[in-house]
């Protein structure tokens, strides 16, 4: 891309708010250089910049008058970063799915290639004021995903975001923090050390230029980038009104996998996740299940089942005969057991000797009873669940 177009996009990140659909439409029609020219050299109404009020347009022109893209590009280079724009080899093409709300460009800190990492990435998001359960689950999921070669993407906020980043870092894995401020702004301040560690081991990404600070609306708009950048979004804990649910809904609209981790039904922090799960979201409980959804063919989670009991190894007829035996302490004849099991006397007798050799039953003359050890086992006596 010509240098002047890169400079124009860098300047526009100072002028237009992230996700500005009007600005995205202008950019698509005019290109970055012509759009910047119209904002910096013209006054009054401009038919090519329709869709906003005169006051709003004047506000954009006031921002354009003080934009200094050279200074911003120098600032990001000074902190070891770069400005990635559409058309660059490092640009993640999946961001183009956002249409006119696509980022103008991305300010990036860290050594790895953003496009390559984004191809195999999963977003882990959730409540800032999370519970110990939520933090534990988020860290475990991130660690498991990192060990499987997946990049963990989150927003570097307190709570679930921080736990997800730390879980990936602890496993020596890859993680990306998408910020709602400049890549050189430590926000939240309590995560300054974490953000620096992510910059050293992973990537810091932002739509806003260096030095810019977050606002409430920018946090919400940032979530669309997290959703578009990744192959799927996992929500660990979220209330009904949560920015994490915004990320999940963006992912659904973009055709990405949307997943949720269930929590206690008595917890308000799980209410939003459960609402997602009642819809189209997929229930996941560990990294293997996440990888099964977002991964390639063959990435199957192991089959879940309870402990294997001796009774589980019995043939169906032997199991029916065992179920036919009466309560512990009482006996039954072979004829009674055959009638209860729905099989012949000879077949019942053969199964009883088999059960006797396995320690399930005892013989008392012509009658049979449950062995004391078998009577104590779950499912070993008649009527067991």
From TrEMBL:
It comes from the Bacteria. Residues 83-294 form the Smf/DprA SLOG domain. It holds the Pfam family DNA_processg_A. Coiled coil: none annotated. PANTHER family: PROTEIN SMF (PTHR43022:SF1). Belongs to the DprA/Smf family. This is DNA-processing protein DprA.
């Amino acid at each position: 891309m010509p240098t002047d177009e890169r400079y124009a996009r860098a300047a526009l990140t100072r002028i237009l708010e992230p996700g500005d659909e009007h600005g995205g439409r202008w950019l698509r029609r005019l290109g970055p250089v012509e759009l910047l020219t119209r904002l910096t050299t013209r006054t009054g109404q401009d038919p090519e910049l329709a869709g906003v009020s005169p006051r709003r347009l004047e506000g954009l022109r006031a921002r354009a008058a003080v934009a200094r893209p050279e200074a911003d590009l120098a600032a990001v280079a000074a902190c070891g970063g770069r400005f990635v724009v559409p058309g660059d080899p490092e640009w993640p093409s999946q961001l183009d799915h956002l249409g006119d709300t696509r980022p103008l460009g991305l300010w990036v800190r860290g050594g790895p290639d953003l496009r390559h990492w984004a191809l195999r990435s999963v977003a882990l998001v959730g409540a800032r004021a999370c519970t110990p359960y939520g933090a534990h689950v988020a860290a475990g999921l991130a660690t498991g995903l990192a060990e499987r070669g997946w990049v963990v993407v989150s927003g570097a906020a307190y709570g679930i975001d921080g736990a997800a980043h730390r879980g990936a870092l602890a496993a020596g894995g890859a993680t990306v923090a998408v910020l709602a401020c400049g890549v050189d702004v430590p926000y939240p301040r309590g995560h300054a050390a974490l953000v620096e560690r992510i910059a050293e081991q992973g990537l810091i990404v932002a739509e806003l230029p260096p030095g810019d600070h977050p606002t409430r609306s920018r946090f919400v708009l940032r979530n669309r980038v997290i959703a578009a950048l990744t192959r799927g979004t996992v929500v660990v804990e979220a209330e009904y009104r949560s920015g994490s649910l915004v990320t999940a809904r963006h992912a659904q609209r973009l055709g990405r996998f949307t997943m949720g981790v269930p929590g206690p039904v008595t917890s308000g922090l799980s209410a939003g996740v459960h609402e997602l799960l009642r819809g189209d979201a997929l229930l996941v409980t560990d990294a293997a299940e996440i990888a099964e959804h977002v991964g390639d063919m063959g990435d199957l989670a192991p089959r879940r089942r309870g402990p294997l009991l001796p009774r589980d190894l019995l043939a169906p007829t032997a199991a029916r005969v065992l179920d036919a035996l009466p309560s512990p302490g009482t006996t039954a004849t072979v004829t009674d057991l055959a009638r209860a099991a729905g099989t012949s006397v000879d077949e019942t007798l053969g199964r009883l000797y088999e059960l006797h050799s396995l320690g399930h039953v005892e013989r008392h003359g012509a009658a049979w009873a449950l062995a004391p050890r078998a009577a104590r086992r779950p499912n070993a006596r008649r009527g067991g669940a």
